[in-house]
Amino acid sequence: MTIEAQVEPSDDERLTVEWYKNGRPLVLGSRINTRFDFGLISLEIMDLITEDSGFYTCRAVNNHGEAITTCALKVKGSANYKDLFNYKVNDIKLGVDDKAYD
Question: CA spacing 20 to 30 A to 14: which of 8, 41, 72, 79?
């Protein structure tokens, strides 16, 4: 499961955007990314886990001041993708005209 939060700032080349989780700077990585595309600033969290729960804050700053918005995210569970592919494959031997299935 993925969550995406978007902010639509006014056109300003001096704009800086910072993201926080629980009041601390957000650490970006392979699952957590930010984007600035088509005039939207996005925070994307992929493959949500319960540890992603918390308060996420976006702080946008330019020469005119700052704007801050915060939202709460609560992840109640996470998908166990390992179980989806955790099965044993058995080898079978087939003759030239044998079927592998019924």
Answer: 72
User: Which one is the CATH code of 3-84: 2.30.40.10, 1.10.150.130, 2.60.40.10, 3.40.50.1000?
Assistant: 2.60.40.10
Mean pLDDT over the full length of the chain: 79
> What gap in Å lies between CA 26 and CA 32, rounded to an integer?
9
Query: CA 75, CA 50: separation in Å to the nearest integer?
Result: 5
Tell me, yes or no, if the pTM score tops 0.70: no
Length of the chain as a residue count: 102
Q: What angle do CA 70, 38, 29 make, to 5 degrees?
A: 55
